Amino acid sequence: MRLMWLASPALAVGGFSYSEGFESAVDQGWVNDEPSATHWLIDQMLICQAKGDWSLVGQAMTTWSDFNETELQTLNTWVLMTRESHEFRLQCVQMGRSLLNWLNTHQSLQDPRVQWCSNLDTPTWPVVYALALHLSHADVRSGLVAMAFGWAENMAQTAMKTIPLGQIAGQKILNQLIAHIPQAIELAIQTKPSERQLFNPHLSILSSQHEHQYSRLFRS
């Protein structure tokens, strides 16, 4: 039940307010219907999420279990350094702080991991999410399933609002994303720390353009 809670886009961290560059892709004409949205989001899942944040979350869950403070700080710094636009950095920091507040509400304040994380200057979303998964006693694979489904459902909703699309089209997109989640999770687990990457120039450029987009629904 705790994992279902963490997987829900309704989790009070503000994820619904970010499109992760998708709105800019629609504005630029790269995405304009259900097939193009599906293709875009599957690529984003396999190229960006799986080999980047999801791979890091899997490692961070083990690191939280060992409570290796030096390694946790290194992972948090890596997340910050891979955010190539103001909006992407804003998202990972704001959602990280919001989830940490949620943990402080729903977990014992005496937990040394929560206290340590609260003392970070800029706790990031992937690192704090890994902590939430660890405190939920999830194994790595189950934790990544929860994170992946939450991301997929949120992005399907984003596509519906932005293009816009109807409910049936949104469910078709979500169905395709779910079908690729096992592949993405295997990729995340198999990606070594030295191979982990979040270098996607096209998406970063779109994110930067979104900062000056005339009309927008989302914060990224």
Task: Tell me what the structure shows.
- By secondary structure, the chain is mainly α.
- It has a single domain, classed as Urease accessory protein UreF, CATH 1.10.4190.10.
- Helices cover 70% and strands 0% of the residues.
- It contains ten helices and no strands.
- Helix 5 runs parallel beside helix 7.
- The longest helix has 33 residues, at 34-66.
- The protein is globular and about 50 Å long.
- The model has no long low-confidence stretch (mean pLDDT 92).
Name some characteristics of this structure:
mainly alpha, 220 residues, single chain, Urease accessory protein UreF
In short:
The protein has 220 residues and is mainly α. It is built from 10 helices and no strands.
Walk me through the topology.
Elements: H1 2-7, H2 22-27, H3 34-66, H4 69-81, H5 86-106, H6 112-118, H7 125-135, H8 140-162, H9 167-190, H10 201-210
Helix pairs in contact: 3-4, 3-7, 3-8, 3-9, 5-7, 8-9
User: Within the CATH hierarchy, at the fold level, what is the topology?
Assistant: Urease accessory protein UreF
Tell me the total number of β-strands. Answer: 0
User: Which stretches are low in confidence, meaning pLDDT under 50 for 5 or more residues running?
Assistant: none
Largest sheet: none
Instruction: Provide the CATH top-level class.
Output: Mainly Alpha
**What percent of residues are in strands?**
under 5%
Number of helices, where a helix is a run of at least 4 consecutive DSSP H or I residues? 10
Number of domains: 1
